[in-house]
C-alpha cells in the first residue's frame, strides 16, 4: 500500500503531528507514505526522483520547485522524527491549489480557472499511489470528496484553527490558536489598565466566532463580538461606560474578524476576486474608532493575525492530530473511503465527507460557553 498525504488550505498547528501519525501507523502495517508538496501542486510537477531516501533524517522542508525530486516526498519514520511539536507543515500548503478550478494564466495575461483534476488523477496513478489522506478544512475536504468521486480512494482529516468543520467536536489547531489569543489578551490587560485605555483586538475565525468566544472568555474580555451575534455599537459603548462608572477605566473588546454590526456588513480586506476566498479584516479598527467617538475614551486596535496559526501545537492539539492520523490509516485498512475522521468524544469516528462539505459549524447561541459568558457579565453587543 502506497499512501499519498496532502496538506491543503491555511496551515494549522498539529499538521505535522497528523503526518507523523499517518506515516508511523502505515509503517507498522508495512505500508509506505509519500508527502505531496504544497497541497496538490506536487502531483503536477515533473521529475519523479525523490530527494529523500528512507532512513535519511528530515532536515527541514524541501521547497525547491522543479527539483529532480519532483513533487513527492517519501516519508518514513526517519523523515517524521521530531516533528510532532513543530507548527506549520513539512509538506508546504497552499490555498490556491484547487485541481477543479486551477488558476491558469492565458496568453493575453488574464487568469482563467481550469479543471485539471484528471491530470491529477493520472499523476496519482502514475506514481503508483493507492490511497490519499487529505488533511484540510472545508475547502480542502470538498476537493477531497470530488477526488474520491473521480476514483481516488480518499480519507479526509479535518483541520482548521477556525473550528468550523461540522461533524467534529473540534479540529486540531483550534486549541493552540485559542491559547495564543488568550495569552495576547492577558498581555493587553496590563497595558490597557496602566493607560486607562480601551483595547480592541481582532481575531481570526472566518464566519465563525469560536476563537473569539473561547479566548475572550478565558482571557476575561469585557466585550466579545462574534459573527453569530450581530452587534449594536451603542450596546458596546454602554458596557464600557458602565465599567467606567464602576471605576474600571479600561476595557478589553474582542472582535472576531467576521463580526458585523446589525444591519451592517462584514469588513473585507479586499474585494473577492474571481475564485478567490474572501479576505476578512478591518473590523477592529472600525469598532475602535466608533468607541472613541462615542465614549471619548482613548481606544487602540490591533489585529492578532497569523500569530494565531503559528507555534507549537498544544497538548490537546497534538493528541487530537495524532489520533486523527492513526484513525485515517485504520480507515484505509478497512477500505472505508470517501470518509472524514471526526472527534466525537470520547471516540474518533468517521462520517462521509459529503456531510461536511460546504457547511459551517457556527457557535450555538444557546450553548454553554455563551451562557457562561453572559452569566459573567460579558457583553456581546446585543
Ligand atoms: O481558515 C484559517 C484562517 O486563518 C482564517 O481564520 C482566516 O480568515 C484565513 O485563514 C486567512 O487566510 P490567509 O492565510 O490566506 O490570509
Q: What's the count of strands?
A: 15
Give the strand order of the largest sheet, numbering strands 1, 2, ... along the chain: 3-2-1-6-7-14-15
CATH architecture label name of the largest domain: 3-Layer(aba) Sandwich
Q: Unreliable segments (pLDDT under 50, ≥5 consecutive)?
A: 48-68
Largest sheet: 7 strands, mixed
Strand % is 15-25%
Question: H/E order of the elements?
Answer: EHEHEEEHEHEHEHEHEEEHEHEEH
Helix vs. strand class: alpha/beta
Bound small molecules, by name, code or SMILES, are: 6-O-phosphono-beta-D-fructofuranose
What are the key terms here?
binds 6-O-phosphono-beta-D-fructofuranose; elongated; 382 residues; 10 helices; Rossmann fold; seven-stranded mixed β-sheet; single chain; 2 domains; alpha/beta; four-stranded parallel β-sheet
Describe this structure in words.
By secondary structure, the protein is of the alpha/beta class. It folds into 2 domains: 2-172 and 313-345, 3-Layer(aba) Sandwich (Rossmann fold), CATH 3.40.50; 175-309 and 364-375, 3-Layer(aba) Sandwich (Rossmann fold), CATH 3.40.50.460. It contains 10 helices and 15 strands. Strands 3-2-1-6-7-14-15 form a 7-stranded mixed β-sheet, with helices on both faces. A 4-stranded parallel β-sheet has the order 9-10-8-13, with helices on both faces. It has a two-stranded antiparallel sheet with strand order 4-5. Strand 9 (223-225), helix 7 (233-245) and strand 10 (251-256) form a beta-alpha-beta unit. Helix 1 (15-28) packs parallel to helix 9 (315-333), helix 5 (174-195) crosses helix 6 and helix 7 packs across helix 8. It is elongated and about 70 Å long. The structure holds 6-O-phosphono-beta-D-fructofuranose. 6-O-phosphono-beta-D-fructofuranose binds next to loops.
Amino acid at each position: 500500500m502506497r499512501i499519498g498525504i496532502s496538506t491543503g488550505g491555511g496551515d494549522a498547528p498539529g499538521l505535522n503531528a497528523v503526518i507523523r501519525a499517518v506515516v508511523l501507523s502505515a509503517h507498522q502495517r508495512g505500508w509506505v507514505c509519500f508527502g505531496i508538496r504544497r497541497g496538490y501542486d506536487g502531483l503536477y510537477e515533473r521529475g519523479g526522483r525523490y530527494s529523500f531516501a528512507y532512513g535519511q533524517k528530515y532536515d527541514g522542508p524541501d521547497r525547491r520547485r522543479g527539483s529532480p525530486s519532483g513533487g513527492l516526498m517519501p516519508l518514513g519514520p526517519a523523515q517524521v522524527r521530531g516533528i510532532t511539536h513543530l507548527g506549520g507543515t513539512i509538506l508546504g500548503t497552499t490555498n490556491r491549489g484547487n485541481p477543479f478550478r486551477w488558476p491558469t494564466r492565458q496568453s493575453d495575461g488574464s487568469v482563467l480557472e481550469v479543471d485539471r483534476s484528471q491530470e491529477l488523477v493520472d499523476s496519482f496513478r502514475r506514481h503508483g499511489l493507492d490511497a490519499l489522506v487529505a488533511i484540510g478544512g472545508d475547502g480542502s475536504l470538498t476537493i477531497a470528496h470530488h477526488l474520491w468521486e473521480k476514483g481516488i480512494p480518499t480519507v479526509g482529516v479535518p483541520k482548521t484553527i477556525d473550528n468550523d468543520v461540522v461533524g467534529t467536536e473540534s479540529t486540531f489547531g483550534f486549541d493552540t490558536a485559542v491559547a495564543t489569543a488568550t495569552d495576547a489578551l492577558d498581555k493587553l490587560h496590563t497595558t490597557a489598565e496602566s493607560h486607562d485605555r480601551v483595547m480592541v483586538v481582532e481575531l481570526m475565525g472566518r464566519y465563525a466566532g469560536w476563537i473569539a468566544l473561547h479566548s475572550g472568555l478565558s482571557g476575561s474580555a469585557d466585550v466579545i463580538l462574534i459573527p453569530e451575534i450581530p452587534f449594536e455599537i451603542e450596546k458596546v459603548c454602554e458596557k464600557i461606560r458602565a465599567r467606567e462608572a464602576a471605576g474600571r477605566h479600561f476595557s478589553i473588546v474582542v472582535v472576531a474578524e467576521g463580526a458585523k454590526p446589525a444591519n451592517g456588513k462584514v469588513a473585507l480586506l479586499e474585494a473577492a476576486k474571481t475564485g478567490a476566498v474572501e479576505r476578512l479584516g478591518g473590523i477592529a479598527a472600525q469598532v475602535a474608532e466608533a468607541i472613541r467617538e462615542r465614549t471619548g475614551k482613548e481606544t487602540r486596535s490591533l489585529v492578532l493575525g497569523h500569530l494565531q496559526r503559528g507555534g507549537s501545537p498544544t497538548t490537546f492539539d497534538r493528541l487530537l492530530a495524532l489520533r486523527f492520523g492513526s484513525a485515517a490509516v485504520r480507515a484505509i485498512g478497512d477500505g472505508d473511503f470517501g470518509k472524514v475522521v471526526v472527534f466525537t468524544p470520547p471516540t474518533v469516528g468517521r462520517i462521509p465527507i459529503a456531510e461536511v462539505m460546504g457547511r459551517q459549524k457556527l457557535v450555538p447561541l444557546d450553548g454553554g460557553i455563551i451562557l457562561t459568558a453572559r452569566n459573567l457579565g460579558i457583553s456581546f453587543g446585543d
